[in-house]
Amino acid sequence: MAINWFKYSAPSAFYGLAGKLVPWFAWSSAILFAIGLYISFFVAPTDATQGEAYRIMFIHVPASILSMFIYLIMAGYAALGLVFNTRLSSMMATALAPTGALFAFISLWSGAMWGKPMWGAWWVWDARLTSELILLFLYFGFIALHASIDDPRRADRAAALLAIVGSVNVPIIYFSVKWWNTLHQGATIKFTGTSMHVAMQQALWLMMLACWCYVIAVTLTRVRSIILERERNTQWVAELEEVRS
Amino acid sequence: MSEFFAMNGYAFYIWGSYGLALLIFIIEIAMVCHKRKITLQQLRLLRDAGEGE
């Protein structure tokens, strides 16, 4: 049984597949958010040292982790587009950038909202915070560079280089709490296990999954518009039902 | 109920975090849906212009 894995690397095939997947991810996200928020606020116990304020964690940690993961995925797609000249990979990179930037912003914002009551400051020039801020600027740079070049294929290549070079920042964010003395606390969930209460872990994982499903649903919807825009002169776009009607 | 929303004095910080995240999600969803609508509209305009030639 031979499966043609390259079938969906063609924008025309992927457009239809993405359209079918979006509702599934959107509904999964809504359900996971509902359960995740319920556990975050009603099941997870009050923290021994931080009281109720720690509940910011359930949005802060998923948003932060996703902002880094989305960047790596975006840079990966951009690199694929650069090396193999595949149109769809570059479109995916472009579609991921705004969502990644928003998650980096949520991470910084919820971090400030957590920092004020716990550290007494909205912002400090700590290694973790500063490198996350640079991540947000890298997203802005990617979006702005791509938008400033008229020829989309050239824009793809230029923005891809920026994304690849910028990906060096992601391990810096991740390891910043180990490499430097930071005000920001270290990782609580480690590969070797965790000291966290089981309900807190469940809430965290559910919120993370919910965010993933959200990101996939939004990105696929955005990439479908980008595909239509960039393939507008092709026969298959002209023959689409939603275009003909 | 009001005790729940008070969050033991941390209400502003907690609801400020979740509120902004919710706002961002709503705006992003609206923008993505709007972009799809606009793109399809433009494609139809492009097609109609092509037929007129």
List keywords for this structure.
heterodimer; A: 245 residues; mainly alpha; two-stranded antiparallel ribbon; 2% strand; B: 53 residues; 2 helices; rod-shaped
Quick rundown:
The complex is a heterodimer of chains A (245) and B (53). Chain A has 245 residues and is mainly alpha-helical. Chain A has nine helices and two strands, in the order ααααααββααα.
The number of distinct β-strands of chain B equals 0
> What is the average of the pLDDT values of chain A?
92
As for the number of domains of chain A, it is 1
Helix amount of chain B, in percent?
over 70%
Task: List the strand order in the largest sheet of chain A.
Answer: 1-2
Report the end-to-end length of chain A measured between terminal Cα atoms. Answer: 38 Å
Succession of helices and strands of chain A: HHHHHHEEHHH
Round the Cα radius of gyration of chain B to an integer and report it: 22 Å
- What class would the helix/strand composition of chain B place it in? mainly alpha
Beta-strand percent range of chain A: under 5%
Mean pLDDT of chain B: 90
- Largest sheet geometry of chain B: none
Structural class of chain A: mainly alpha
Global geometry of chain B = rod-shaped
Radius of gyration of chain A: 20 Å
- Biggest protein-protein contact in the assembly: A-B, 34 and 27 residues
Strand/helix succession of chain B = HH
Please give the number of β-strands of chain A.
Answer: 2
